[in-house]
């Protein structure tokens, strides 16, 4: 499932790029994210992400790996993890493009999310909608962080 | 594997509500269990206490309230009871018909109407058709009760406007006007329907006095399609029939379809349009 979101923020591209490496601030933008930490500076990170749909709750301990970075315009990362309780697995590939846009910066966020295991039985459409919502909230939160 | 849990059997709404209030998120109402137990067996849901509402006599039964001119269905009523109820068959044939096609007979023998509505699995039938009757639901707890339109019960997929200690005690379905009829059609390629459409049509001489349309399964929650309804209401029958494809398209746009295993969004939108046309005609034929 691919989700794409674009947001324009009133901040210089360089500043946006710097922000992306500020782990606590980025973690604060990810809905349901806690315990974010640096495993290897610039390469590997860890965090736990939780979500709920009605009574269904999931929690994924994720390992995040930076696959490619070209300052200050492009970042590619991969995250994956398994929910022990529900027996579900999630894999996320993230592409982030930063472009200068009239004094501000345009962030184009493309995510490819794969949900495996029993979690899929919850309903494919629900997972799609939730994924879309989460990516949208993430993009908006980044803007809020950078513009305040 | 089903994990151990305490099975509580209260005999009144107040007692059940008290148990729910005490145990909070560790407890869940057990009505028929057809959805809940499956999710629990898969480990998707875990509760320490299940509060069975099967032994609460005030939640049982179906009756026609002559004063209110409405059908009153107790929350713990099973689908099969509704399907076979003489009063439902005679005065609300579309509901009996819809109920006779919910899942399969084993599910209908166990599953309850309130359980179906409150679990709010988007691919369900009753929540869609009941909306074209302007049905309301009574939500009850130890120290009070409130009545809300069924439409307002649905908040999102698997999410309803029920407070933690509330129980859906009754569904009230107002009788349609004598010159009004309803129909429900669905289509699906998997176990659960991909699209469900309910239409209630009221004629006045050669004109469409009133039309109510609801669409379910396609979006996160079943809902009324008021833009499409407004396009048809007040028109002559011939005009309304000519406008049906456009109204169907308006409803298809409003349905908030998503591509998934049940079909692509454009396919579901097409089905919404086709089924609205057919359900409209099915309702019309009943009035002929």
Describe the structure.
The complex is a heterodimer of chains A (148) and B (288). Helices cover 26% and strands 53% of the residues of chain A. Chain A has 148 residues and is α+β, with helices and mostly antiparallel strands. In chain A, strand 2 and strand 3 form a beta hairpin. The N and C termini of chain A lie far apart (32 Å). Chain B is of the alpha+beta class and 288 residues long. In chain B, the strands form four sheets. A five-stranded antiparallel sheet of chain B has the order 4-5-10-6-7. In chain B, helix 10 runs antiparallel to helix 11 (237-254). The N and C termini of chain B lie far apart (54 Å). The A-B interface holds A 53-56, 85-87, 118-119, 121-126, 128-129 and B 28, 39, 42-46, 120-123, 156-159, 220, 258-262.
Keywords:
heterodimer; A: 148 residues; alpha+beta; 7-stranded antiparallel sheet; 53% strand; B: alpha+beta; 5-stranded antiparallel sheet; 4-stranded antiparallel sheet; 36% helix; globular
């Amino acid at each position: 499932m691919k989700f794409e979101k674009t947001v324009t923020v009133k901040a210089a591209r360089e500043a946006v790029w710097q922000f992306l490496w500020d782990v606590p601030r980025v973690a604060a933008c990810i809905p349901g994210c806690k315990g974010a930490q640096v495993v290897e500076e610039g390469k590997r990170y860890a965090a736990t992400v939780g979500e709920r749909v009605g009574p269904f709750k999931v929690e994924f301990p994720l390992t995040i790996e930076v696959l490619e970075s070209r300052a200050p315009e492009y970042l590619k990362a991969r995250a994956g993890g398994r929910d022990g309780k529900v027996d579900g697995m999630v894999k996320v590939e993230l592409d982030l493009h930063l472009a200068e846009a009239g004094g501000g910066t345009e962030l184009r966020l493309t995510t490819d999310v794969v949900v495996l295991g029993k979690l899929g039985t919850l309903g494919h459409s629900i997972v799609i909608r939730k994924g879309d919502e989460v990516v949208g909230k993430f993009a908006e939160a980044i803007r809020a962080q950078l513009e305040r | 594997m089903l994990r151990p849990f305490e099975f509580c059997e209260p005999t009144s709404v107040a007692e059940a509500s008290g148990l729910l209030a005490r145990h909070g998120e560790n407890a869940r109402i057990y009505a028929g269990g057809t959805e809940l137990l499956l999710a629990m067996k898969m480990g998707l849901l875990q509760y320490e206490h299940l509060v069975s509402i099967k032994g609460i006599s005030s939640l049982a039964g179906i009756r026609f309230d002559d004063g209110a001119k409405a059908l009153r269905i107790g929350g713990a009523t099973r689908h099969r009871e509704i399907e076979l109820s003489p009063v439902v068959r005679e005065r609300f044939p579309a509901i009996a018909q819809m109920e006779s096609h919910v899942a399969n007979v084993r599910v209908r023998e166990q599953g309850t109407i309130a359980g179906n509505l409150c679990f709010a699995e988007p691919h369900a039938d009753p929540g869609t058709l009941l909306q074209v009757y302007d049905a309301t639901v009574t939500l009850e707890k130890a120290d009070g009760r409130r009545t809300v339109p069924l439409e307002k019960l649905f908040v999102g997929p698997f999410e309803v406007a029920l407070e933690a200690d509330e129980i859906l005690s009754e569904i009230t379905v107002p009788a349609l006007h004598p010159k009004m009829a309803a129909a429900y059609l669905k289509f699906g390629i998997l176990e659960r329907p991909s699209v469900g459409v309910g239409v209630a049509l009221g004629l006045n001489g050669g004109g469409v006095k009133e039309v109510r349309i609801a669409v379910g399964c396609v979006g996160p929650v079943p809902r009324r399609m008021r833009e499409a309804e407004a396009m048809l209401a007040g028109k002559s029958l011939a005009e309304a029939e000519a406008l049906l494809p456009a109204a169907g398209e308006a409803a298809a746009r409003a349905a908030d379809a998503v591509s998934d295993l049940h079909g692509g969004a454009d396919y579901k939108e097409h089905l919404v349009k086709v089924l609205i046309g057919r359900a409209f005609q099915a309702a019309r034929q009943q009035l002929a």
